[in-house]
Write a structure and sequence with these properties.
This protein is an alpha+beta fold and about 850 residues long. It has 32 helices and 13 strands.
Length: about 850
């Protein structure tokens, strides 16, 4: 593609100042937009509209609002003190009702008439327990304010927990922890890049470019309105880890071109064209891997897929558009901040070691890969919102454990039934209430005294349980929100509801029913997402390298690494989130397939100069540093999430990604060489080296077309350069005078100081020579012919003037003309 005779790289380099200004505007815009992006912590919000839980939640919000849930435990209190605190909690704005023993027992009567065995679910051993139902959902601002007020009311007398409390603390906790992970990752990545590069400033340049891309990605998330907490937590760190290679490729290509003696602009043009195919292939494979998550029926898949894919695309564009300008601007700084290499020159040791153990590694992988493929789906998975709750060690988790130990677990469900018959509703409520695992089942008909019609009660009381179209029954079950027992209890309660309302539409809402729906929807997503991501990445590789067998060879070690990684939770007996199990396949494929592509490219380069053995050894030796550097960066940010976040969903995903990157690095370095040697006859072409050299020669033969400056513009540029040089000279003289003053020699220049001559600077000479080179051959010939013609005309005029000198009249006229010219000159 060319625009007005210029290739894209010419336009990028010639308009680099404009590109810098555009990115400044984008960064400012993103800074403004980042606080406006909403964050969602409720996984049930991503259920498809066709699922029963999604339909029930819509009804709840329309008819009653979907309530958040909380738990309160008061220690060392009497019944009357607990009643007083309960009433204060009930008066908090945002609290719908507080479930306690005073709903069925008169606690103001004599203690002799109170059967404490009947209220031991709410009060025993001077400890009171209450369930709090809020008027709005867990994630609403009103519920968060109500939670804070309840915490202030309870104070040191007890504990507050529940899903609403977890949601209130979740946002600030995740933001604080992810910020710490990001800061630590930046420091460690800077150290890694400093060790593997030869300049102190190169890592700063890499991190600055990707920091701009990350900030723009976070700001442009405003187009989605709201994103999930997972996308918000892992999006930035994964974008940093997965796209670092792009900037490294471009800068190293520029350094190699400068080493050949090319001018900076020409070297950047050559480097851009050279690195474009590898950067483009690497970026597209990652984008396709992430975008495959958009095919999930569970809504968090498209949410994460679009956010992560957009982030990688923005990193790719930032490296290709902005980084050339920053490299050209900072090349002198990079040169001045050079340091000695910290890593010795690449030897053949690791390559020869990989070649020696190739058969052993190959056999081990063949033996374990089938069991790992089977075991990956047999782990103990979690599916719902309980994985979003705080992990062991956090205050909310510890409060939950103390409440469970004292009063048992609490799992709130709500049944939605038609409001037609109070008799049917009461019978159903009583049967559910008689179940051994149910703490209580509460409906309007169950608490309505016999003989008193519903119409006698005030509407503000009846509207809590009945609306025009639906009646709700609050059920509290002694179980966790997500467990095999909870699923069984939910099915039993649903069966009882269907028995009393056999031909009518009813719903059961809560953590457990929603988790069951998530499980039914998300499990079929796994195979579809994996197949699509695999085919998409293979297609990108096939188009990039114009080969059919090569994608298979490249993907073999990465897929084996994914199978091993996802099987380890079953081997360890570790519980893992099924959502992370799906996501990690796409992320590991997109983030680590670059290692395999790099190794394969180096093998083909070496194969064109030697046999298979030598090619395998050289490929591993040349690729090891790059593969380990990139893998170490991914592992740093992933294990940072694992060790430094308290949310199970985020830490578990970080562990899977970090471990997957480690396994991918090992298999690429020690398993892939054997695969390349086995498939050598199908992937290596005899003309590979010839085609590559022809491509490089074509790139270096293409000269960049720099803009031709007008004479006025050139003068302005030269003046600005001269002003800059003069300022530098004055600053230098001032420093020398101050140094003399400090030494006691007075405020003056040293005697041996020689002022700089007003010769053109190197930059001016470079620009003038470039300007001369820009003048075309035809234009130079035209100017030359015009100059020769002027010379002939001047010679003819001189001859005529010489022949007329002997004429007196002419001399007098000449004297008069001279006098006139002098007068005119004086007047002027």
């Amino acid at each position: 593609m060319k625009l007005k005779g210029h290739s894209p790289v010419d336009l990028i380099i010639n308009n680099r100042k404009l590109i810098e200004k555009i990115y400044i505007v984008l960064v400012i815009f993103s800074l403004i937009c980042v606080p406006m992006v909403g964050i969602n912590y409720d996984l049930t919000k991503y259920l498809p509209d066709s699922s029963p839980s999604a339909q029930a939640l819509d009804i709840m919000e329309d008819e009653f609002t979907y309530p958040g849930m909380g738990r309160v435990m008061l220690e060392d209190v009497t019944l009357y003190e607990a009643k007083n605190i309960k009433d204060r909690i009930a008066d908090v704005d945002g609290v719908d009702m507080v479930m306690w023993c005073d709903m069925a027992t008169n606690i103001y009567g004599s203690s002799e008439f109170i059967n404490y065995d009947n209220i031991d679910d709410y009060y025993k051993d001077n400890t009171a327990y209450m369930d709090v139902i809020f008027t709005d959902k867990d994630s609403s601002n009103q519920t968060h304010k109500a939670v804070h007020e309840i915490e202030n009311i309870v104070g040191d007398k007890g504990l507050v927990a529940g899903s609403a409390v977890s949601d209130t603390n979740l946002g600030p906790t995740i933001n604080k922890e992810v910020a710490r992970v990001m800061a630590l990752a930046v420091v460690i990545i800077y150290i890694i890049l400093t060790i593997t590069t030869t300049s102190w400033f190169e890592p700063v340049l890499f991190l600055s470019v990707l920091g701009i891309a990350i900030l723009i990605n976070m700001g442009t998330n405003i187009i989605f309105g709201e994103i999930s907490f997972l996308s918000n937590a892992v999006g930035a760190v994964l974008q940093l880890a997965c796209s670092m290679d792009y900037s490294i490729f471009l800068l190293h290509a520029f350094t190699q071109e400068r080493a050949t003696g090319a001018e900076p602009e020409q070297a950047m043009a050559n480097a851009w064209r050279t690195a474009f195919s590898s950067i483009g292939a690497s970026g597209m494979t990652t984008i396709v891997g992430f975008a495959a998550m958009a095919l999930m029926n569970f809504g968090i898949g498209p949410d994460m897929g679009f956010v992560l894919a957009k982030g990688i695309a923005l990193s790719l564009l930032t490296v290709l558009l902005l980084m050339p300008a920053l490299i050209l601007r900072s090349q002198n700084i990079i040169a001045r901040t050079q340091h000695r290499p910290f890593i010795p020159k690449q030897g053949r040791g690791i390559g020869e070691f990989a070649y020696k153990i190739r058969r052993i590694v190959f056999l081990v992988v063949l033996i374990i890969i089938i069991p790992c493929y089977i075991a990956q789906g047999m782990a103990n998975f979690s599916y719902g919102n309980e994985a979003v709750a705080n992990s062991p060690g956090t205050p909310v988790y510890e409060a939950e454990q103390q409440m469970n130990a004292k009063f048992g677990k609490s799992n709130m469900m709500i049944a939605l039934v038609p409001p037609d018959s109070n008799i049917t509703e009461k019978k159903m409520t009583e049967e559910i209430n008689d179940l051994s695992y149910v703490k209580y089942a509460l409906s309007l008909s169950s608490v309505l005294p016999e003989g008193i019609p519903e119409d006698f009660l005030p509407e503000n009381i009846t509207s809590l349980m009945h609306s025009k179209n639906w009646a709700r029954v609050i059920i509290n079950v002694r179980s966790a929100g997500e467990s095999d027992d909870a699923f069984k209890f939910s099915d039993n309660i649903r069966a009882i509801i269907d028995k009393y309302y056999p031909n009518e539409t009813t719903y059961l809402v809560g953590v457990t029913p929603s988790t069951q729906d998530i499980k039914d929807i998300i499990v079929p997503d796994y195979n579809r997402v994996n197949i699509v991501s695999l085919l998409g990445v293979a297609l990108v590789i096939a188009i990039t390298y114009k080969a059919l067998i090569l994608p298979i060879v490249v993907l073999i070690p990465i897929e084996c690494a994914i199978f091993i990684n996802t099987a380890l939770p079953y081997i360890y007996g570790q519980r893992t989130m099924y959502l992370g199990f799906i996501i990690v396949g796409c992320i590991q494929l997109g983030a680590t397939v670059d290692y395999s592509i790099l190794m394969t490219g180096n093998y083909l380069d070496a194969r064109s100069q030697g046999d298979k053995k030598e090619a395998a050894i050289r490929a591993v030796s040349v690729s090891a540093e790059s593969v380990m550097t990139s893998g170490l960066i991914v592992m740093t940010v992933a294990y940072g999430l694992y060790f430094m976040t308290s949310v199970e969903a985020i830490s578990g995903l970080g562990q899977l990604i970090g471990r997957g990157a480690l396994i991918s690095v090992i298999l690429v370095l020690f398993f892939l060489p054997m695969c390349l040697m086995l498939f050598d006859r199908w992937i290596f072409k005899s003309d590979y080296a010839e085609k590559k050299h022809a491509k490089m020669n074509k790139i270096r033969a293409t000269k960049i077309k720099l803009p031709i400056l007008s004479e006025l513009h050139q003068q302005r540029v030269n003046l600005q350069n001269q002003i800059r040089e003069n300022r530098k000279a004055r600053n230098k003289e001032l420093r020398l005078k101050l140094k003399n003053l400090m030494n006691g020699d007075g405020f003056k220049l040293p005697q041996n100081y020689t002022p700089p001559t007003q010769e053109p600077s190197k930059q001016q000479q470079t620009e003038e020579s470039a300007h001369k080179r820009m003048i075309g051959k035809k234009l130079r010939m035209r100017i030359h012919n015009r100059i020769e013609m002027r010379k002939e005309q001047l010679e003819q005029l001189a001859q005529r003037l010489g022949s007329d000198k002997n004429k007196p009249n002419d001399s007098q006229n000449d004297n008069q003309n001279d006098n006139t010219e002098e007068n005119d000159h004086e007047n002027r």
